[in-house]
Amino acid sequence: MSQIIYPKIEGAIIKVVGIFDYDKKFQQNLESSLGYTVVPVIDFKNAQFYRDKYYKEFNELMLTRTAKNATRTYEKGLSSKILFKKFETIEKSGVIEKREKEIVAEISHLELKLFENNIGIFAMTVMVDSWNFQEISDLTYCLRFFSTQVEGENIPLHMWISKHVLGGKSLRTSEENKVDSDDYSGSKFKIYSAFSVDETNVENYDRNELLFELGTASKLGSVSAKNYDTPSYEYYDEIMNNKVSAFNSSTALALLDSYTVIGHDLFYSNGEIHRNNFSSYNNIYFSIYLFNLYIKYNVFRFNSKFKEDAVKYKSRFEDFINDYNYSHISFDFLPNLIYSKMRAALGIENEIKQFEKRLNSLAANIQEEQEKRQAALLGIISVISSISAIEPILDTAEQVRDYTGLESNLFYALLSIVFIAIAISLLSYLFPHIAKKVWKKLNLYFKND
Question: Of 26-30, 73-77, 301-305, where does mean pLDDT reach its minimum?
Fold first, then answer.
């Protein structure tokens, strides 16, 4: 097959994204010792554009950031180069050889989004010396994995980010340190990328195939090569279901670990940047992506932790869904299309449905248990009501006391303890949720003492 000549990249946005846990101390240190500056909120006077285009809840949460529960955004300029080494196979005269290739990237900008429940998202903007798709493919492949080795410092990428981006805050659980986010975010970073290209001088080039290869970290040309690296038709079609294609000039692909856009003169052409378009992809659509990642992370975490305390996570899930689960975010069709495709790719609706299914099962189990307890309570009441008088009980107690030979005070004290123990057990059985709360409070009280 003839060689593929890819379009020239005129401008690009590449961001590496990940989730981390934070606390008050971390937030206090961002400006004082880590060199970050807070990004000011967009005040009412300058927010008309956002009010005209985006629904109030989403706008004030992610864009103008004026809501009470809005994200707090910090940024920091950086000029730090990192080096990776990647092995690749090449064919020479029918012989397949392996060779080592060096890949250099520069981290030029850092951004942190802090959400209200101690969950943060970081983003690193990456620059490269050579803007061509082969180099981009190799680079984004290396940037995906926590375990990719950073040469020079000889540490995995997740440790490099912990050291240079997060002030030492770990992204992975160790024997000494439990990292909650590590349990629910996987072992890959997310790649958000947008490429403004010139497609006038291309050969054997298919934009959809390039999107697939970049989005899935496949070898360039593998879709059309018809070899062992070529995806099946079924897999290719399934992946491309999450394609965003509103206009002929550009196409995007939303996947679980990436969001990729390729467009002719998308935000850069003839040596000039189109600032409004660039801002849309660098800020607004990127914010939509981060918002969806935040929702995905939380609903997956609720599903995973449900068994620990079903009642507690039921309440938290319902509060979260009420605050963040929007059906639409904009008055315009394109942001809503992007939003829905990202949700579909991340499987957000499936996570929500799964949790709701578990809630329905929980409700049925609780109702069944309540019916059993009510039946037990009615049985106890019927037994008590069948006793015509208390005098026979006292006579029986006296007979037992005479038989044991215990003094009256001691005997009735012990009898009272037995009755109290039976009453506590009975009440714990009839009202388990209240009993659980009481025992937790008692445990906390004695621990504090």
Answer: 301-305
- Of 243, 269, 288, the residue that ends a domain is 288
Q: Which two structure tokens, joined as six digits, stand for 256?
A: 């679980």
Q: Comparing C-alpha atoms, which of 282, 286, 285 is closest to residue 12?
A: 282
Element (H, E) at 87: strand 72-92
Q: Is residue 81 part of a domain?
A: yes
> Looking at the 3D structure of the chain, how many domains does it have?
2
Q: Which two tokens stand for residue 406?
A: 């215990």
pLDDT at 1 over 60: no
pLDDT band at 27 (very low <50, low <70, confident <90, very high): very high
26 & 158 share domain? yes
Report residue 446 CA to chain centroid gap.
36
Q: Give the residue among 260, 199, 204 at the shortest CA–CA distance from 7.
A: 199
Rounded to whole angstroms, how far apart are CA atoms 59 and 52? 10
Six-digit token string for 376: 């037990």
Residues in the chain: 449
* 396 closest CA partner among 409, 411, 383, 375: 411
Both 145 and 17 in a single domain? yes
> Tokens 């400006």, residue?
31
3-state secondary structure of 155: strand
For the stretch 164-170, contacts whose Cβ atoms lie closer than 8 Å and that sit 24 or more positions apart, written own/partner, are 164/78, 164/80, 164/107, 165/110, 165/122, 165/124, 166/20, 166/26, 166/122, 167/26, 167/29, 167/30, 167/33, 167/34, 169/20, 169/21, 169/22, 169/26
- Final residue of a structural domain among 247, 273, 288: 288
Comparing 87 with 59, which gets the higher pLDDT?
A: 59
Q: Is 393 found in the same domain as 255? A: no
pLDDT tens digits, residue range 228-278? 889 999 999 999 999 999 999 999 999 999 999 999 999 988 888 899 999
Domain encompassing residue 238 = 8-288
